[in-house]
User: What shape does this take?
Amino acid sequence: MQDIIRIHEKDNVAVALRDIAAGERPWGEIMAAEPIPAGHKMAICHIPAGGQVIKYGHCIGMAKEPVPPGAWVHTHNLETALGDLLEYEYRPVWADGEKRAGGELSDTGKAGYVFEGFRRRDGKTGVRNEIWIIPTVGCVNNVAAAIARQANEWLADFRHACGSPKGSPKQGPGGAEICSGAGAEARPEVGAETCPGAGVETCFEAGAEACSEAGAEACPGAGPGTVLCGGCTVEEVIAFPHPYGCSQMGEDQEYTRKILTNLVKHPNAGGVLVLGLGCENSNIHVLKPYIGAFDADRVKFLEAQECGDEVARGLEIVKGLVSYAGVFQREPISVSELVIGLKCGGSDGLSGITANPLVGHFSDKLIAAGGTTILTEVPEMFGAETILMNRCANEELFERTVMLINDFKNYYKSHGQTIYENPSPGNKKGGISTLEDKSLGCTQKSGSALVQGVLPYGGIVEEKGLNLLSAPGNDLVAATALAAAGAHIVLFTTGRGTPFASPVPTVKISTNSGLAQRKSNWIDFNAGVLAEESGMERETEALFDYVLEVASGRKVSSEEAGYHDMAIFKQGVTL
Assistant: This one.
């Protein structure tokens, strides 16, 4: 294992891969003039006051004072070189007529990879079969949570009666979850007369004694693919509380409505209960036009002010949704239908060396197979934005990317805030000194593919390939925006660690092995091995395989812990 790494041949700093003591010679004859913590930078040549500090082959800031070889380079002697609004020129990386690696789709890749997912009635694909409860307003958050809690208890009890461990239904061929293992008295051999034309709900409500080995014939109304003990393919009932939906105005209110309705339409949800209060600004009648056409079997509505016991009624509705969604079974689906969100948080000095480049290679591989990735957290593109702009597939996308960047800068300015007040204390402790330093590492998650789409906040992905999404750097807000844009899974790289989740499976990828070992209950994949003995090609294949496992039903750590978070971008006054 090497002690220090120079990322690009143009760099005048190198990054320590372990703690380096003063007096050590980690870079040829250059002696460390002071302790260099792991993830932090050491000068490998003289840098004059006002001179550029180069990392990743790009300027990450200016030296505040002369920096001798072997010196620790950090916030005490390095400052940002970024300004406010800038003028940009489109200089496509493929101006010579050849598309950049990852810009073209590979037919071989398309045919070679599949995952086990859920095909919805509208043709969309989900990687989970959950029931989601979406409150229209924060006033009904506790009602939504109570319905979800009772529904999960009911679902677990039913599975237990069928012989499957609570919360862990047994799986049959092809991933179909079935109730099995109960004694003969619990599963009598029955024919179609048991559920004459009723569909799966009748069988489900009948209790364990209705379970049979007769298959779909026992519930002829349910059609092909019926699951024994209907509803067992439903993995969980989840409520997504939030504090908004009322006392909002203008664009701020629009953001809430778009995120909520996008989640209603998300294919990871086999069924959805939209739970309203009745008097809120974003009530059910207001939201329906945003939802548009919907499957009335899949999406149900409940207005709490218009019923007696809203929890009891909500539970009754959710039971029906479970019965409806329970007929869906996993089946082989091409990875060309996968949409993966890309996000980082709690970054450190190794983020741009291990985890982020790894996710970039993953992104290129998925896109080459016909799939889609979405990169967000716009403020952490500042300082590296021209790299993305020049990878836009056409000039229209370039102009939209310029607007993406400048709109966020104007958002900061309109609130009287410094545009480049970044990185965070945790970032700095991990070795990141300036926003350029952070952004050049952050954008490596995009790989090398061309930008094929640019989405506003609350937009839904339409173009295959690499997309850019407008959202802030806040972990919960950005990850929710990725899910609302259509991401089935979010890949989240971190050097500091975090237990948070999002509405979709959120894969935590550590930048260093110490974090992976210390917080194994948070971390799903360790990219820290790239700073040790493993190679990028090997780890790209391993991550790709892992993501396909997650898409096929393997739970990530936050799911195992029962974590599901959702946060909406607040950008206006509160009445």
About this structure: Residues 96-111, 165-228 have pLDDT under 50 and may be disordered. Residues 141-162 form the longest helix (22 residues). Residues 153 and 480 are 26 Å apart (CA to CA).
